[in-house]
Write a structure and sequence with these properties.
The chain has about 325 residues and is an alpha/beta fold. It has 8 helices and 18 strands. A 6-stranded antiparallel β-sheet has the order 11-10-13-8-9-12, with helices on one face. Strands 2-1-7-3-5 form a 5-stranded mixed β-sheet.
């Protein structure tokens, strides 16, 4: 069997490079390396992934229904989803600039699998149609709807996974959507309506500072999306992840997954923080924030970009502690759950 060749692809005027196999589409290669490329269908129907070939040779690897105009063909434009490199390439490509340039989309998605970690947490995996893939940035969230019942959840997966999305849904008595999940009224192969993306909890990709990620319990979902995006971008920044959780649980619900990131990042430090917390009662958010704060390495925190995903009150108190201790407000990026 012939071994695939690997070629370097350069994006003109952006000082960005990625490697792509001659058996993968250029779009797949770019997304896998964390580049925010425009696309919708990934199967040659919509034309959103057009790029201009500046240097090098490409080969068509699948048919596309989208018809390029004569002017576009003369301008060396092509669809990245249907072509692979056959040499080193230089391309002219428009990338998504920021969250404001991503439109809110409405997509009907299908549940692939619901995995119950325990009686309190479900991992819901869904798939978008090939003709309508969700365009989003790591850390953003969406609204999910089932028969008129709507709730908002952060996307737990990285944009590099394309059509496959993941959500972490906790069993909350006052959340009707979660009750449909845990009563199994929503099940595998059911269809949901998705609206999004929303939110501005996104990565500072140009920063060279160390990155500190702090999650409370299910706040792991958007934090996980951000962390996985850092290594798809191959960012060299040291990463410090603190995961706070109720001490009544033996470990955080996705502890092994968080540990597995040691294999893909050279400078990755992971620490769990067991907090006194009772899910059945109202809790002292100030006390929980102080427990988290006391567990941090503040010398590292103050020189880092700090990303926090926690309940609103915990986030407010923790943010106050950090700013009073010398963290620059511009280095604090936070999202309530």
């Amino acid at each position: 069997m012939k071994k695939s060749a690997i070629y370097q692809v350069k994006l003109q005027d952006k000082e960005k490079y990625f490697e792509c196999s001659d058996s993968d589409s250029i779009l797949e290669g770019g997304l896998r390396h964390g580049l925010a490329m425009h696309y919708e269908c990934s199967n040659g129907t919509c034309g959103a992934c057009k790029a201009k070939l500046v240097k090098g040779d490409i080969k068509k690897i699948k048919h596309h229904d989208y018809a390029l105009s004569a002017d576009e063909l003369d301008n060396q434009e092509f669809l990245m989803c249907c072509h692979a490199p056959s040499s080193e390439l230089e391309l002219e490509v428009d990338l998504i600039g920021d969250v404001r340039s991503i439109p809110v989309q409405e997509i009907q998605i299908k549940i692939k699998n619901i995995r119950f970690i325990n009686d309190e947490m479900a991992i819901v995996s869904v798939r978008t149609p090939r003709s309508k893939t969700l365009q989003f940035m790591a850390g953003q969230d969406v609204e999910l709807s089932f028969k008129g019942v709507v709730s908002r959840y952060p996307i737990a997966s990285c944009p590099c996974h394309g059509m496959d999305l993941e959500f972490h849904i906790r069993n909350l008595k006052d959340n009707e959507f979660s009750q449909l999940i845990f009563s199994k009224q929503i099940k595998d192969k059911d269809k949901l309506d998705l609206t999004g993306p929303k939110g501005v909890f996104v990565l500072k990709e140009a920063s060279t500072k160390p990155m500190v990620f702090i999650a409370w319990d299910g706040g792991f979902a958007p934090i996980g999306s951000l962390v996985e995006h850092t290594f798809s971008l191959e960012m060299p920044n040291p990463v410090y992840f603190y995961w706070a959780y109720p001490a009544t649980d033996p470990v955080p619900y996705f502890d092994n997954h968080a540990k597995s990131w040691h294999a893909v990042m050279d400078e990755y430090h992971y620490q769990t923080i067991a907090c006194e917390f009772d899910r059945s009662n109202k809790n002292d958010c100030h006390k929980i924030a102080k427990q988290i704060y006391d567990s941090l390495d503040h010398d590292i925190v103050n020189q880092s970009e700090v990303y926090i995903s926690a309940p609103g009150e915990v986030l407010i108190y923790l943010g106050e502690f950090l700013l009073e201790n010398g963290l620059n407000e511009a280095q604090l990026i936070a999202s309530p759950i």
